[in-house]
Structure formats: C-alpha cells, structure tokens
UniProtKB/TrEMBL annotation:
UniProt keywords, alphabetically: Cell membrane, Membrane, Transmembrane, Transmembrane helix, Transport
Pfam families: BPD_transp_1 (PF00528)
Keyword Transmembrane: yes
Domain of life per record: Bacteria
Record protein name field: Oligopeptide transport system permease protein
Protein family (similarity comment): Belongs to the binding-protein-dependent transport system permease family.
Transmembrane segments: 5-26, 89-115, 127-151, 171-190, 211-231, 237-260, 272-297
ABC transmembrane type-1 domain span: 91-294
Length: 305
C-alpha cells in the first residue's frame, strides 16, 4: 500500500507539471485577456506580468506556483478574487453533486443488474437491457436538458437552477442526469458478474449442502460477484467529477464547472491548473480507496503487500 501511495504522489506531481506546461504553451495569457485591445504601456504590462508571476520561464513559474500551493495560496485572479476561496466554495458543490449521482447510479445499476441476473429472460431482464442501451446512447447534456424542462419546469417539484434549495432538492435533477447516463454500464457489468458467480462450483456446493436461498444469494453470490465492479464504480465516480462540469453549467450550480469556464475565457492558467490538479488528487485518492475496498471484499488480497 505504501508503494501505491508513493506512485500516486509521483502521478499527481507529474500530472500537475504537464497541465501547467500545456497551459504555458497556449497562445496568450491572463494579461492579454485582461488588456484586450486597450493600449497599455510596456512598463504597465511588465508590472502586471511580474505581479501574477507570468514573466519567468516555464520552470520558474511552475516552481513558484508549487511553492505557493504548498503554503495554501492558489493566487488571485486578474480581477482580484482569491482563488483559494473560490475553490473552497466550488469544490463542495461538485463533490456533493458527484456523490449524489454516484449513489443513484449504484442503487439503480446494482438493483437492475442483480435482478436481471437472478431473473434471466424475464421482463426485468429485457427492460434492464433496453434501459442500458438507452443510457449509453443519450449524451449527458441531453438528459440534463430533458430533466430540466420536463421534470423541473413541467412539474415544478424540483429547482432547475442554483443551489439555494439545498440538498437534496437542488441536486436531484443534475445528479439524476449524471447517474442515468452511467448506470447502464454498471447494470450490465453487475448482471454478467453475478451470473458468472451463480455458475461457480462453490455456489453449487452451497446449495447442495442445503444452505438457505437468501444466504446463498447474499453471502455466496452477491459479495464475490460485485468484486469486479469495484474498479468500475471508482472510475465512474472520478468520471462524474469531470462530467459534472457540463451539468453544473446547465443547472447553474456554481461549482467547479463555472470556475473552469470563466478561467478558460480569462486565460487564467493558475486557476485552471489548480482546479485540474485537485481533480487529479481526488482520482489518486479514489484509486487508493479502490485498493482498500478490494482487500476488504477479497480476503486473499490482505496477505499481499
């Protein structure tokens, strides 16, 4: 596990540098976006670049940025806003949205997948297959717009913009948009995994010993059957953090999505790098959690290093 943590640290450092380098080589920067077509003297422009640490080489800018971040300072935007404060307000919204969507995907996907595996060829199996294909074919933004118009505006039961209503009301529709797009893969993987486990020799032996059907299902089929899903579910949560950008923009949630859009339009590289670097850190943490979940579900892995 220590090796895994060290690998994650190296990955985060390497990813942050690559992101910083990608932003560095793009034409223009935050000062160009701030000045626009207005005539500015070379002295003023040089002072602005020095203020925002944009006058050095790639390595100088990166090392200065890392030193500031390690001290908890993500800098300021060109209009004077504190980036650390912006991140503090935006990330909880995105994390809460992704967590809500992940729980919905987990409940819907596992439920349909398990029911389809236990009742093959029945109505629930055919319905699950149809819903799976539909979820894989429809893009996230289309589902979000449909839910916003027909469920939000049509029924008036759910807010269609902002987070003023709080959790869960303000997050139900955007989270459902994220979950409905991803639950298809979870449902199909669950069905295949559980169906394969049902045909295992240890399951047949358990039934031959007269163990009750409910115990066979929960202890001998479902627990080992969901082990292959751990990686998928972890990657799915990480994907929702990225997919939340689009949904947040549609529902105007004020999360990371809005910050990224504004940072790109203003060419504020430090803000972009900060947002994406935190996302990389979260993905690395998710991978470590996946390893721990594997060890919990499969005792054979607990003896390995």
């Amino acid at each position: 596990m220590l090796n895994r943590i060290l690998q994650s640290v190296v990955t985060v450092i390497g990813a942050s540098f690559l992101i910083f380098a990608a932003v560095f080589v793009l034409p223009g920067d935050a000062i160009d976006a701030l000045v626009g077509d207005n005539p500015v003297s070379p002295e003023v422009e040089a002072a602005l670049r020095a203020r925002f640490n944009l006058d050095g080489s790639l390595w100088d800018q990166y090392t200065g940025y890392v030193q500031a971040v390690l001290s908890g300072d993500f800098g300021r935007t060109t209009d004077g806003r504190n980036v650390s404060r912006m991140l503090e307000l935006a990330w909880p919204v995105t994390l809460l949205l992704a967590a809500t969507a992940w729980i919905l995907e987990l409940v819907i996907g596992l439920g349909i997948g398990i029911a389809s595996a236990l009742l093959p060829g029945r109505l629930v199996d055919r319905l699950g297959w149809a819903l799976t294909l539909l979820s894989l074919a429809v893009p996230t933004f289309a589902v979000a717009l449909l839910l916003q118009h027909y469920v939000g505006l049509g029924t008036g039961l759910f807010p269609v913009a902002g987070t003023r209503a709080g959790w869960p009301m303000a997050y139900i529709l955007p989270a459902a948009a994220l979950a409905l797009v991803g639950f298809g893969s979870t449902a199909r993987l669950t069905r295949v995994s559980v169906a394969n486990t049902m045909d295992s020799e240890f399951v047949r032996l358990a039934r031959a010993r007269g163990i009750s059907g409910s115990r066979v299902i929960f202890s001998y089929i479902l627990r080992p059957g969901i082990i292959p899903l751990v990686t998928h579910l972890g990657v799915s949560f990480a994907g929702m953090l990225g997919g939340a950008v689009i949904v947040e923009a549609i529902f105007n949630l004020g999360g990371v999505g809005g910050l990224i859009v504004n940072a790109v339009s203003r060419r504020e590289g430090s803000t972009i790098v900060g947002l994406v670097t935190i996302l990389v850190v979260l993905v690395a943490v998710i991978n470590i959690v996946i390893d721990l979940a594997y060890r919990f579900l499969d005792p054979r892995l607990r003896t390995t290093t």
